[in-house]
Structure formats: structure tokens, C-alpha cells
Amino acid sequence: MAVVPRELILQTRGLTRRFGGLVAVNDVDLSLHDGEIRALIGPNGAGKTTLINVLSGLMPASAGDIWFRSDRATLDGELITAWPAARRARGGIARTMQVTAICPSLTVLENVWLGAQRSQGRPPALVSRERMRGVAERSRECLELAGIAARADEPAGSIGHGDQRLLEIAIALALGPRVLLLDEPTAGMSVKESWEIVTRLREIRDRDRLTLLIVEHDMEIVMQLAERITVLHLGQTLAEGTPDEVARNADVQRVYLGGR
Amino acid sequence: MKAGLLLLALLVLPAGLNRFGRFFAAEIFTWALYAMGFNICFGMAGMLSFGHAAFFASGAYGATFAILHVARDPWLALAAAVVAATALAIMVGFFAVRVVSHSFVIITITFSLVLLLLAHSQKDVTGGDDGLLFPPLALFAGAGPSLATPLVTYYVALAVLVLGYVLLRRLSRSPLGLVFQAVRDSERRATLTGYDVQRYRWLAFVLSGGVAGLAGGVYAITHAQVNAQLFDITVSVDAVIWTLIGGAGSVLGPAVGAALVLAFTHAVSHWIVYTQIPVGILLILIVIFWPRGLSGLWPSSRAS
Amino acid sequence: MDLTTLVLFQLVNGLVWGLVIALIALGLALIFGIMEVINVAHGSLYMLGAVLAWYVFGATESFAAAVLIAPVAVGALSMAMERVVLRPIENEKVLTIIATTGVMLVLQHSVLATFGGAVQRVPSPVPGAVRILGIHYPVYRLVVAAISVAAIAGLWLFLSRTRYGLWLRAVRQDGKMATALGIPVGRVYMLAVGLGGLLAGLGGVLAAPIVVVQYQMGFDILATVFIVVVIGGFGSLFGAAATAVLLGMLEGLITVVATPTWARIASLAIMGAILLARPDGIFRRRAVAR
After folding, report:
1. Which residues of B touch A86 (CB under 8 A)?
2. Distance from B94 to chain C by nearest Cα, in Å?
3. Looking at the domain assignment, is residue B110 inside a domain?
4. Beta bridge partners of A237
5. Does B191 touch chain A (CB under 8 A)?
6. Distances from the Cα of A162 to the Cαs of A68, A111, A175, B54, in angstroms?
7. Is B269 in the C-facing interface, judged by CB distances under 8 Å?
């Protein structure tokens, strides 16, 4: 694999999140580069989902900073630590949830539309959605990419959990983000489905120069998909590096891979 | 298509109605618009308000003040109605939408009750229970047919209702309408897709209040009088009941609910003086025997 | 009356009235805590208690009879309401709003049809005043306070010491678990609603000589009681009672400087502000199993 130098796109410095006396995320320094596929692994309770929650803005950080470069054209980024979640989504950081959050009474297409209409600038408030061809196309495109185009007109509440996760991915893509945070995207999926989605994700990354941070438990997928891996343990970074480096790391073996 | 046919029928209906029939139909149109406005807040954005009487009544009073102090022009009065109700909704809504579900219901009851108390206590401004009266208006500020004529009232109320319907239909098919529904279904989804939930809730509340106020304006110009009882909680409860019965999931649902209940009440009044007793029994029976007939939605504030 | 006396007088007034509100609010909180029912008819149950008190007192000249008969009658009616109207639709929030609104309309207008819309007065059953804390205070209101406290204490004993009370608390905590444990949940629902109605009816009986009795008196109370229950922390019994008493005293205090209407408006505004600051109420319930 050729090593292409990539610029920094998302960085945390000393990121900490406390819940009362419990420190769920402890002084984490994470640096994501443009177009990278990073896996975030660790035992249960390591703080992975909390870290994603803080990155996406659903929870405020207790300490530390988050730096983000939303504009591809420059190397200047900004501190987004104080940005609320909606602003981060608008700014280019999208995420999927472990327990899916979708609009059950809207159709699958309408759900994606929510994301797609965002990326088309600001339409006048009372334009009929039927007239918005650009948004329609983009929505269908994202449904295709996620693999649920067949379900477009079904109420989102009536599709299976696996498809709901794919829907979340479709909505996230429709936003046209720079960074996509995925919280256990393959949980509950069959082996075949998991690999399908993994392949799709890689294609999307190649196509759109998306940066992916994936929380994942399935080690095979992690080893195959990730370019770099960050291992969390008890809220702190235990190890970080290429899949080979991490697999050989003694601490990691002891804490995570060894105990099986 | 169906709406077009319905409109056609409504346009020719007065030919078959007597004076009272036309007047009663105009009443239904007014309240139907009120209920449809309420439903922007409830059915579309998922916030149950038990205080919408405040918007209807402030619209009615806004129209009345315009007529008494500015000009005897019904269209100006309607504009004033919308302005008054919208202003109130902007102020109250800013705070109200920051809480959800049970607390939101209580806040709406509270501010509506405060306005009711004020309306009764400030009798020199509002006229209290006796209210304010003015001579019936002419359709075009001094010229044209009188709004005391049921036929004229009928068409004016119908016209405003149709206008409201067209706007609401557009809203429900627009990107904005989609966001309202998303906020209703899943606050979290809306947030993660980049929408500021409080802002959109506020906007829905304001639009809802504005349309309810417009209906209040129609009430004022067609009755040529208003009183403090328009602020009463029964008016708020009516909106909820009509919407739940007619169905909160469509634009016309609340209008249908209003028409059904008002027609039922009127029909029953021929035999029974205390019409609210059979109305109450009807509500209970509907709930027990036909619960799925009500496509109501409870605002799912905690839905992930 | 000088200022301190006035303040004291109004505070005690507020306390008494707050205790009455507490009874009604406890009833509502019980019903809501058990079934998540927003009982729009609760104000009408209060009104019914007052109307029955007026009627029984008029027929028997005995207030004691009214205190015994009216709450029980209202409680029985509430149980019937639960069985017939609420049971088929339990847990459907939207439907219970419609259903209890229907009950409210029926109750209100049945009273209107039967007794007319004229305002009725119930003479104070215990005349005279007594000197306490340096003020001349009506004996009856002290009796009201005493009965209210006794009823609240009785409720507390019932919930904490009897088997039915235990069942009630279990169903409040976790309905499904309670069913699994063999608790007759249906009977518990009926009991809770019956108790809730009884408390509201008792509040009505006690209030009858203080306020005017009229078929619409339930509305005013309804808003206040709802606010109290939500601010008290939805479903928290202690919270509801405490908030009711505090609200009563607050409003009493404000009437020292303002008319009753403005006192009402001010206390509503304050309640609204509290709710905006603490939407989940002040005294939150510990384990809320939904």
C-alpha cells in the first residue's frame, strides 16, 4: 500500500468525559487524517461509545479540546468543543447510533431526504418536495450506496433492525460529511451482511474521500478494514497503530485479544 | 382531486341552506381552521398544547381592536389578528418549547389561564364576559355586502379556510414540514441530521398560533363581537378533541373532527338541552369501541 | 389588622387551602403514578364532592354525614370510571385524554342539568373563631386542616402498612413485574383510581363551605392541581403534597399585597417559571419504571 501523506482533519487533545465520579473517557488524544479508516476497539466499558458521543456532540466534554477542519480547501481548522450536536452535523461530522434513531412514521426515503435536503442549500420554505429533483436524486443515490433502495417507500419504523442501521448510514451519507463516526455498524448483522457493508464503506470512502472512525467488535472486520486502530481501555488509549502493530502489542494481547 | 370536488360542493352548498344553515356552516369553517392550525403544533411537530384558546382569542381581540381603533376593514382586521396571535406565540413559544411532554402541556395551560384571568380582570380593555361589540362590517371597508348576511359570512369563512388549507398542505409537503415531523418522531435523529430542534419547535409553535389567530380573526369579523370567554380552557380542549377525533395525521383531519362534533352537538340540541352530555358519552364510546379510528399521535419526546 | 397579623392570617389561610389542594393533587398523582392517565375529569370529581356535600348537608343538616358519604360516593364513581372507561384503553395516553374529557363533560353537565347553574353556598358547619398565634381564625378552617392532615396521614399509613398499599406501590414501580408476582393489577388500578377520586371528593367536601359551589368549579382547580403534580415531580406523592402546601402559602402571602386575581396570576407565573427551570419537577421520583 502506497503511503500517501494526508492532512489532519479531526483531532482531540486531552479529551475527557466524567459522569460524577466515573471517568469514562480519560485524557484521550486522537488524530484522524483525511480519508483515513480508523477502527476504535476495546473491551466493553472501555469508553468507545462515550468517545463517539462526545465527538458527535451528544455529550459535552468535561475537559479537553476537539479540533476539526471542515473546509477541504484550507489547512485551517477550528475548535469545535463548544459546538452543539446539530451544528457539528451541519459542519461535516456525521454519525450512526448503536441503538438506531430514525423517524418511524416517515418513509425510508423521507428519512434520507432529511439529510439530503440539508446539503442542497436552503430551499424556500414552502416549496413542494416533489419539485426538488436534486434532493430526490441524492436521496436515492444514498439509499443505493447503503443497499436499501428497495425499501424506499416503506415506513422506517417497519423495517428490520439491520436495515435501520443501513438507513442511518444512508442519512449520514446524504449529509455529505467529511467525517463519519460509526458506532458498531455491523452489530446484529450476518457475516455476509457485515462484509457487504464493510465493502460499501470502503467504496464510499474511496469515492468521496470520507474519513471513517468505526467502533467495532468483530476483529476480522477490524483487521481487514482498518488502516489504523486505536485501542481504548478504561477510558484511556492503550495502543494505537497499524493492525499488525496493534496485534503484536503485548498490552493489547493481555487486555483484549488474549482473554478469549 | 377529492379536495377540488369538496370545494366545488362547498361553493354551491349555500343554495340548499337557509340562513341558519349558512351561518352554522361558517361557524364550522372558522373552528375547522382553528383546529387545523392547532394541528401544526400537535400532529406535525408533536407538541400537545392545551392553551391554543389563547391564540384564537388574541387573534379575535386583535382583529376587534383594529376595527375599533384603526379602520373598519375586515381584511386589515384579519391581518391584525394574525399579527397579534403570532406575537404572542413568539413570546410564549420561546420558553414553552424548551420543555417537552407533560411540562409543555402544563405550561400551555398556565399561560392560557393567566390570559383568561387577565381578560376577566381587565374589563375596561376586554369587556369581560360582555365583551366588545361593533356594527357589522362591510366586505370592502365601507362598501360592498354586509358581513351580517349569512351568505357573505359563509363565503368569507370558506375563503379563509381554503387559504389556510392550501398553505398547510404546502407546508406538510415542504422540506420545512418534513423537519417538523422529524422533530416529532425523533428529536435525536433531527439533531444528528443538523437541525436545531428548539428552533424548529419554536417555528412550528409560532405558525400554529398564527393560524389559530387567523381563525379568531374570522370569528371576530363574522360575529361582530368578542368576549373574554374565548380565552376559556374549553376552547383549548375543543381543539384537542376535534383533532384527536378527526385524526391528527392529516391536514384536513382536524377540520373533519370539528365538523363532526359540531354537527353532532347541533343535531342533539334538538332533543337535549344539555348537549355536552351526549358529546361526552360519544367521546367515551368512540374511545372504547373504535380506538383505532383515531389516528392520533402522542408526542414522543423521549423517543431516541 | 396590622401587617404581621395580616401576613400571618393569609399564611394560615394559604396553608389550609394548600392542604385541600394537596388532597386533590395526591389523588391525581396516585392515578397518574399508577396508570399514567392524565385524568382530565379530576376537577369534576372535586366538584362532585362539593356538590354532594351541599346536597347531603341540605338534606340531613349534618356535615359529618357529608364528609362520610360524599367522598365514598365519588370514590365509588371513580372506580366505576376506571373499570368501564379506562380499563379498555389503559396506557394509551391519547385515548385517556379523550375518555376522561368525555367523563368530565358528562359529570359537569349532569350536575348542571340536575341542580342548575346557580351558585350555591354551604354554610360553615363549625361556626366561630378562635385565637391562635395572635390572630382570630375561623374554627372551621382549622378543622379542614386537621381533617386534611389526618387524611394524608391515613393515606401514608395505607400505602406503607397495608397489603393493598404494598400492591399499589409495586404496580407504581413496575407494572409488568407486579403482574409476574401475581398481584391482581386490574384490582389495583381500580383501587388507585377509587382512592384518587375519594381524595378529590374529600377535597371538594372540605372546600364547599369555603368557596362557592358551582358546576364549573372543577376547571379552576384542575389547572392548579395539574401544575402542582408536575412541579412536584410527576407521580411523586410527597412532591405533590409539599408543592401544594407551598403554593397555597405563597399565594396567601401574595394576597397581602395584591387582589386575589393578581395573586393567582402571580403564583401561576411563578409556577410556570419553576417549570421552565426544572421541567422534571422539583421532587423527582427515585426509580421511574416506564
Report:
1. 190-192, 194-197
2. 11
3. yes
4. A232
5. yes
6. 31, 16, 21, 46
7. no
C117-126 residue pLDDT tens: 888 888 888 8
Domains of chain C: 3-287 (1.10.3470)
pLDDT in tens, C157-204: 998 888 888 888 888 887 778 888 888 888 888 999 999 999 999 999
d(CA C198, CA C176): 26
Read off the DSSP letter of residue B136.
Answer: P
Residues of C in contact with B110 (CB under 8 A): 223, 227, 268-269, 271-272, 275
Q: What is the ipTM of this complex?
A: 0.91
Name which of B178, B186, B194 is nearest A90 (Cβ-Cβ).
Answer: B194
pTM of this structure = 0.90
Q: Is the minimum CB–CB distance between A94 and chain B shorter than 8 Å?
A: yes
In this complex, the residue of C103, C262, C271 whose CB is nearest that of residue B280 is: C103
Within a domain: B254:
no
**Domain hosting residue B123, numbered range:** 19-232
Minimum mean pLDDT among A141-145, B39-43, B236-240, B282-286: which range? Answer: B282-286
Q: Is residue B41 part of a domain?
A: yes
Reported confidence tier of residue B302, pLDDT bands at 50, 70, 90:
very low
CB A105 within 8 A of CB A116: no
Cβ separation of A114 and B189 shorter than 8 Å? yes
